[in-house]
Amino acid sequence: MLSFSAILSVAVSLFITVNAGKTYSSQCPFGNPLIDSRTLSQWFCGRGPSSKPCPRNFVCNIDPADRFAVCCATQAPSVNPCSKGDPLVDAGTGEAWYCGLGPSSQPCPKTYSCKVDPADRFAVCCLI
């Protein structure tokens, strides 16, 4: 007889293989799941070898049927400047990717563009 942990391990491995790249509606109570700035795919925080803990200000939301395990914001953002999706989050800091002026600025990845507030309150990467 297989132990519960052995069955769970097999189920998680199948989930990762079968569901790679799929998204499900309502994965997060606020906004969209965190996107890993290194891979540009959803940050996987569930069980298994590719799991990573969520960064600061995010919590792991695991679907009861184990269809997904993604990092979600712990609270609703005050204002979302992006017209499509949420601002890209830096995987290393857990903060919005900063693309404005100054020494900490980083260019946005290819599928994102830099959205700068006219009053210079933010400069974030938004999906194109």
TrEMBL record:
Keywords, in A-Z order: Signal
Signal peptide: 1-20
Protein name: WAP domain-containing protein
Biological source species: Hypsibius exemplaris
